[in-house]
Amino acid sequence: MKVLAVLLFSTRMSKFLRIFVFFGIFWSLGNKSFSQVNAAFSADQTSGCGTFLVHFTNLSTGSGTLSYLWDFGNGNVSTSPNPSALYSVPGTYTVILNVSNGINADQEVQVNYITVFTLPQPNFTATPTAGCPPLDVDFLNSSTIGSAIVDSVIWDFGDGNISSGLNPSHTYTQPGNYTVSMLVVDQNGCSANQSFPASIQVNNNAPVAGFVANDTVLCSAPFNVQFTNQTTGSGVTTYFWDFGDGTTSTQSNPNHTFASSGNYSVSLTATYTTGCGDTESKTNYITAVGNLNSNFIADDTTVCAGVAIHFTNVTVPIPSSVVWDFGDGTTSTLPNPVHSYSNPGSYSVTLTNRYDASCVDQITKPGYIFVSESPVASFTADITHSCAPPLTVNYTNQSTGTGPLSFQWNLGNGVSNVQDPTRIYNTSGVFDVQLIVTNPIGCKDTLLLDNYIVTRGPVANLSVSSYYPCIPVSVSFTDQSSGPFPISTWNWNFGDGTNSSVQNPGHTYGLPGSYQISLDVTDSQGCNATYTYPTLISSYTKPVANFATADNSICAGTSAQFTDLSTGANQWIWSLDGIVISNLQNPLLGLDDTGYVSVGLIAGNNGCYDTLSRDSFLYLLAPVNRFTYSKDCTAPLTVFYNDTSILPDTYFWDFGDGVTSTLSDPHHTYASTGQYTVIHT
Question: Of all helices (H) and strands (E), which one includes residue 92?
Answer without folding.
Answer: strand 91-100
